[in-house]
Amino acid sequence: MLLVTTDYIPGKELTLLGMVKGSTIQSKNLGKDISQGLKTLVGGELKAYTEMMDEARELATKRMVQEGEAMNAEAIVNIRYASSSVMQGAAEILAYGTAAIFK
Predict the structure, then answer these.
(1) DSSP string, 52-73
(2) Number of H helices, E strands in the chain
(3) For all residues of the chain together, what is the average pLDDT?
(4) What CATH architecture does domain 2-102 belong to?
(5) What pLDDT band is residue 78 in, cutting at 50, 70 and 90?
(6) Sorting pLDDT into bands at 50, 70 and 90, what band is 35?
(7) Dihedrals φ, ψ of 6, to 5°?
(8) 50 phi and psi, to 5 degrees?
(9) What is the pLDDT of residues 53-72, one digit of tens each?
(10) In this entry, which stretches build a coiled coil (predicted)?
C-alpha cells in the first residue's frame, strides 16, 4: 500500500475509491499523568505524551490502511491527521485520506 500526503502520485493515473479513515483515543496511566504534570513546572518535552501521540498516529494509520485494503485500494492519497483532546490526559487521533487504485 502506497501512502502519500499529496493528492496525486507522479507518473500514475488514479481511480479514486472513496474516503478511508482510522482513529484511536489514547491516554497514559495516572502515574504518567502526574509525572508529566510536574514536568510542566520546569518546562521541556513531555516525552510520555510524545510517545503516546506517536503510538496513536501509528495505530490510526494502521486502521486507515486496513479500511483501504478492504476496498482493494493500492494507495491512499491526500493523507491528513487531526487530533483533539477528549478529556484531561486523553487525545483522539484521526487519520484520513482517499483510497485509490492505479489505472
Answers:
(1) HHHHHHHHHHHHHHHHHHHTT-
(2) 2, 4
(3) 87
(4) 2-Layer Sandwich (3.30)
(5) very high
(6) low
(7) -85, 165
(8) -60, -45
(9) 899 999 999 999 999 999 99
(10) none
Res. 86: pLDDT tops 70:
yes
* pLDDT at position 50: 83
Q: Is 74 left (phi over 0), alpha (psi -120 to 50) or beta?
A: alpha
* 3-class DSSP assignment, residue 32: helix
**Which amino acid, 24?**
T
Residue 91, H or E segment: strand 90-102
Starting at the earlier edge strand, list the strands of the sheet with 90-102.
2-3, 75-87, 90-102, 14-27
Distance CA 80, CA 20 (A): 11
Name the grid cell of 66: 486496513
What is the rounded distance in angstroms from the CA atom of residue 54 to the CA atom of residue 28?
13
- Judge whether residue 30 has pLDDT over 80: no
Residue type, 25: I
